[in-house]
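Listing S7. Sequence submitted for prediction.
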Amino acid sequence: MTQPELLKSASFLPWSRAHGTDVWAMFRAAIDGDLATVKLLAETDPNLVECEFEYRKPLHFAVRENRREVVAFLLEKGANPAYTSGSSWHESPLTIARDRGYVDVLAVLEQKLKSEYNVVPEGGPIAEIIHSRNLLRLRETIAAQPQLIFAADERGNQPIHWAVMT
């Protein structure tokens, strides 16, 4: 990856929530699996945990490069495991880990998503029902399996939000 011109500057980039050179340093450390540098940068500026450039965040790079320890640390410090790169939900950290066969990184992400957001495998079918806008089918499914009212899919969709809105 070549360092973009904007990340060669020490100027503060409001949309990135950090200084350009610091964002680049965080990205490089995440890519390289340099946990010590990631920790130092996060301690110096906590915004770097969720800094971004062109819709990519440190977590994206750590997952892409199979850096389990960095992924775990970033999640511990507040990185959003449900964040998607750009406008495509296919580029979520979970999808990247799954597609590349990164079993350990996938387990870390799934545990965080389950504990923080109640993302469970059963949430996917519920989300499909929600997206189809089939309220009758949603109510029937929830009536048959009431525990699913709090289940979420990988994007954070929950039936309870629909129930409140209707």
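Caption to Listing S7: primary sequence and predicted structure tokens for the chain studied. The first strand starts at residue 12 and ends at 13. The longest helix spans residues 103-117.
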